């Protein structure tokens, strides 16, 4: 930042029903708090110095962060986002996107990420193979498997369901350290029988559905191990279709058709029920632009 560039203090608008907010003149803004403001949009493309963005509990349907390349913290939970592109935010350390209609998220570019929360979403799988600095990850109990062997801080190597059921993990921090809660949930008709340290389910850890692990700051780190939740019995679960959502959307141009996948998930287990590819017709040229005399589009 050059000496001539003003440094703005944090801008806090939380709790104020603004409807519209324009922060484009504040190019050097580093911290923005927009919780519970219900803005129609958040144009942040000019705020290239933004490091901390808190915009949860709004009605945002789109969040363009491509210009915020030094963003460190993003708390965007409880909006109406169906997609979140963070490919330009490789320095992200904290990502809280719980309560969104997201069905997938790519955090592999964020090797420094230390906290991730994707609870209350449609996300049923995560690739954490590159997140070596991860301390906390929180998910719903909808996963078949979660591999966190890349990080040395979480006392779990592999979390997996064996049989007709699901697993999940939540993490919380306090002055004492980090606490991890592992959860298991059987599909309808199946039964949870216990947590095991081996895939063959011969070495029982506990028969409780919930496992709580606390890592105290300043003490010797716990040795990480595998946790396999075993389920017996066949599932008789009938899916409850939710509203269709769009994924993998490619916008149409004047000459080329676009496309998207229309996906329906079960509102109970969040498993994908159907996926149909849809075409967006090409827009065609518009020759009615004012001020042009016979010019081409």
Characterization of this structure:
By secondary structure, the protein is an all-beta fold. The chain contains no helices and 18 strands. It has a 7-stranded parallel sheet with strand order 1-2-3-4-5-6-7, with no helix packed on it. A 5-stranded mixed sheet has the order 8-9-15-12-13, with no helix packed on it. The protein is globular.
Shape: globular
Order of adjacent strands in the largest pleated sheet: 1-2-3-4-5-6-7
Q: What is the CA-CA span between the terminal residues?
A: 40 Å
Classify the helix fraction into a percent range: under 10%
| Main pleated-sheet profile | 7 strands, parallel
Q: What would you call the structural class? A: mainly beta
From the structure above, extract its key features:
single chain, 297 residues, mainly beta, seven-stranded parallel sheet, five-stranded mixed sheet, 32% strand, globular, disordered N terminus
């Amino acid at each position: 930042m050059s000496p001539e560039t003003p440094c703005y203090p944090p801008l806090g608008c939380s709790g104020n029903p603004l409807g519209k907010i324009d922060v484009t003149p504040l190019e050097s803004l580093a911290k923005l708090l927009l919780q519970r403001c219900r803005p129609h949009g958040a144009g942040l493309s000019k705020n290239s110095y933004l490091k901390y963005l808190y915009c949860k509990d709004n009605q945002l349907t789109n969040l363009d962060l491509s210009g915020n390349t030094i963003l460190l913290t993003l708390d965007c939970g409880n909006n109406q986002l169906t997609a979140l592109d963070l490919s330009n935010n490789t320095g992200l350390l904290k990502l809280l996107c719980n309560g969104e209609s997201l069905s997938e998220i790519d955090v592999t570019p964020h090797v420094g990420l230390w906290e991730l929360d994707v609870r209350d979403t449609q996300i049923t799988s995560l690739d954490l193979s590159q997140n070596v600095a991860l301390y906390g990850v929180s998910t719903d109990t909808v996963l078949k498997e979660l591999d966190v062997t890349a990080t040395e801080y979480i006392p779990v190597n592999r979390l997996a369901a064996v049989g007709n059921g699901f697993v999940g993990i939540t993490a919380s921090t306090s002055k004492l350290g980090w606490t991890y809660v592992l959860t298991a949930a059987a599909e309808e008709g199946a039964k949870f029988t216990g947590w095991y340290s081996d895939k063959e389910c011969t070495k029982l850890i506990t028969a409780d559905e919930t496992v709580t692990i606390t890592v105290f700051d300043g003490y010797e780190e716990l040795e990480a191990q595998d946790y396999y939740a075993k389920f017996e019995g066949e599932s008789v679960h009938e899916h409850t279709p939710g509203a269709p959502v769009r994924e993998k959307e490619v916008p149409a141009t004047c000459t080329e058709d676009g496309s998207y996948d229309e996906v329906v998930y079960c509102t109970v287990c969040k498993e994908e029920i159907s996926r149909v590819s849809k075409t967006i017709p090409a827009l065609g040229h518009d020759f009615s632009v004012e001020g042009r005399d016979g010019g081409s589009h």
